[in-house]
Amino acid sequence: MSEIVISLEKVNKWFDDFHVLKDIDLSVIKGQKIVICGPSGSGKSTMIRCINRLEAHQGGKIVVHDTELTNDLKNIDIIRKNVGMVFQQFNLFPHLAVLDNISLAPIWVKKMPKKEAEEVAMAYLDKVKIPEQAHKFPGQLSGGQQQRVAIARSLAMNPDIMLFDEPTSALDPEMIKEVLDVMIQLAEEGMTMLVVTHEMGFAKTVADQMIFMDEGRIVEQARPEDFFNNPKSDRTKLFLSQILNH
Amino acid sequence: MTTAAINNSFLRSKAGIWLRKNLFSNWVNTFITLLSLYFIWEVGSFFLNWAIFDADFLVNFRGEEILDRTYCSKNIEPGLHGACWAIIDARFYQFMYGFYPAEEVWRVNLTFFLLPISLVGIFFDKIPYRKFFIYFTFLFPFIAYYLLYGGPTLSQVGTNKWGGLLVTLFLGVTGIGLAFPLSILLALGRRSQMPIISSMCVIFIEFIRGVPLITLLFTANVMLPLFLPDGISPDNLLRALVAVTLFQSAYMAEAIRGGLQAIPRGQVEAARAMGLSYWQSTRKIILPQALRISIPPIVNTSIGLFKDTSLVLIIGLFDLLGIGRAALADMSWIKLYYEVYVFVSLVFFIFCFAMSRYSLYLEKKLKTDNSK
Q1: Which positions in chain A touch B371 (Cβ < 8 Å)?
Q2: What is the pLDDT of residue B228?
Q3: Most CB within 10 Å of its CB: which of A29, A99, A175, A227?
């Protein structure tokens, strides 16, 4: 029996009157790669943002590594240290050089000595293949490079779970591959990953599980070969036909 | 070379092209240019004649030393109109130090000398040994207090003896310096998700901004003693300082809030997702970016406050303007309004212009910093 690292039970969330997550149940096993897709407004981003408490859920239970997410700030801090996140808009800190962007959290959250943190930062810049950009500012980098810095920044905290919220949606087409390559490499190393994306090629290569969400519910969850070849629900079939045939 | 050839080569030079394009491109433009030049000439020459060429400095047109207003050239010969700057010279000590005892005035001079040094570390970030300048910045208020007010081994000089530029700078610099940290807390508080904190900040800011500074000065003057235990009566300057600081902090808080609002939500989210606490992400991520954006409005309100400190003459303090008015009330120098007000304006202008130039320099620098 594999270790369950994230579990969501009957999670519900509202934005004012809008019921954005409806009875979400999900278990993630250590090392699993889950790709989540669905039309916009289906709640997929909100769901993964609940996992590190960027959004608070109002009903149900979310447990990450045996720690339950509540209003308890201590629990939130513990979980955030172990869960990295990559955003659609990169969200790099524009006033800090690339190296400082990456070493910031190790220095301030892990209390790592500055020199050591910078060595760690360089190691992760190597990993995402842009060590030569270390002393530039985010504004001087291309979108693809910025997103790779953002990935390195998350990895520098040495998380065992990574959340990706549409990591390639803001990129020009020619830059998507360089980011996906880094993500594939990460998947091969055994990282637990939850990825919201519409890159179905990536999903077929990497995913253990596919999730299709619509109107706040998980409509279908299946292994990729079943998901793409024999989708069960009509809603999934329609969605797949729309995004695969253009 | 003929004259025509010279003219021609001038018209084709860079300056010639610029002049033709910008000042003499057509008849209307040429007319406005000439009219403006005439206006500038008239006003400029009138002012320069009054202030410099026809003016008395220390001696009048007969070469006598000016001892009081009756020696001013314009008061001897009906046809003369030049300024009589001797009043400024006669009162210069008061303009600078007020009624500070002459044998102790080196203490004020030393403070004036140390003030710019204490600001170097804040104003310029790429200087050698900046760390020590910053240490000095934090040390300076204590040094200045000890020097100006007195303490062990230095005799006490009560603030009722302070005046002139000393009071203006004291209120301006201390008011802005104290208001800055306070305004950051107010701006953060106003955006806080804790309803009590945010509404307290909103009420404070809106109340202070809704009241004229004069009212606050009067209020502080009358009401501050009521809040303090019996027997403790803060001196007038301190009361004014409290009013000025609160006033400035409310305006600065709004300037900073504008900066905070301009920072995209993703910045906080990224910081929080990495495990930074509220204060860490505020200090390392949000404030550095927000304060950059807020610099122009912060400097704007600071310039405003620096000038507004002259209102303290209403509660009986002698700032630069107060000393000027006192000089005018002196029978031996009475009626030399223009000289006094022009001088006071000039001193205010020097400081405010310096602030505004510094803010321009900073904006330019931050722009290049961000795009490099």
Answers
A1: 139-140
A2: 77
A3: A227
Cβ <8 Å between A95 and B277:
no
Mean of pLDDT over chain A: 93
Given an 8 Å threshold on Cβ–Cβ distance, is B264 in contact with A89? yes
CB B232: neighbour CB atoms within 10 A? 9
Instruction: Give domain B163-371's CATH number out of 1.50.40.10, 3.40.1650.10, 1.10.3720.10, 3.40.50.150.
Output: 1.10.3720.10
To the nearest whole Å, the CA of A242 is away from the closest chain B CA by 30
Closest CA to A13 of A52, A75, A68, A56: A56
Å between B139 CA and nearest CA of chain A: 27
User: Does the beta-carbon distance from B284 to A91 stay under 8 Å?
Assistant: no
**pLDDT at B7 exceeding the cut of 80:** no
Residue B372: per-residue pLDDT:
43
**B295: enclosing H helix or E strand:** helix B287-308
In this predicted model, what pLDDT tens digit does every residue of A201-235 receive, in sequence order? 999 999 999 999 999 999 999 999 999 999 999 99
Q: Which two tokens stand for residue A74?
A: 């201590």
Q: Which chain A residue is nearest to residue B284, measuring alpha carbons?
A: A104
Helix axes B105-123, B165-190, angle to 10 degrees: 40
Q: What is the ipTM of this complex?
A: 0.92
- CA distances to A230, B76, B153, B267, B310 from B146, in Å: 84, 48, 10, 43, 25
Give the separation between CA A139 and CA A98, rounded to whole angstroms: 10
Residue in A84, A108, A139 closest to B371 by CB: A139
| Chain A CB contacts of B270 below 8 Å | 85, 87, 91-93, 150
Domain map (residue ranges) of chain B: 1-53, 163-371
Cβ of B275 and A80 within 8 Å? yes
List, for residues A119-148, the tens digit of each pLDDT value. Answer: 999 999 999 999 999 999 999 999 999 999
| pLDDT over 90 (residue A72) | no
Q: Is the pTM of this model over 0.90?
A: no
